[in-house]
Amino acid sequence: MEKLIALGLLYFVGFDVWDDFSAQADKLFLGAPDNEDLIYIEFASDKKDAVIHAVSLINNTNTVTGVLQIDTSAFGEELMAALEAEFNKNEISLPAYSERTMEIWRCFPLEIAYKEPFISLDYAGDPLGYGDEKRCRGLFHKAFDFYK
Hints:
This protein is mainly α. It has one domain (2-59, 70-147). The protein is built from nine helices and no strands. Helix 1 packs antiparallel against helix 2. It starts with a helix and ends with a helix.
């Protein structure tokens, strides 16, 4: 589920990862056809509904313990790998990429938003404000490498 949420976040902010998202949703659904969330995603009326539902799963918490139900390490690994792949494509400008990562960061629950490497998605673009593209790229690479 963590990979699906990560891909959903990327699609939500404008990265062209629909085919990957859809393939991951299909794979998960085939493995758990009774899962209500996967049923909703698989049969959503449009892409937007499927993605919004997947992204909302990042906030699911155990009703007894109040702990997030996603594996934050697995989610972080999947998210950073997907973001690195998009970064390496060089299809958008660094400032536009940075804006998208900040949009992703705004979707995080507080339990992970201020932890590394997630917080980096909020501030990695800050050096662009004073023209330091090298430092910006370095901060993104540090985030990408966090789980390696």
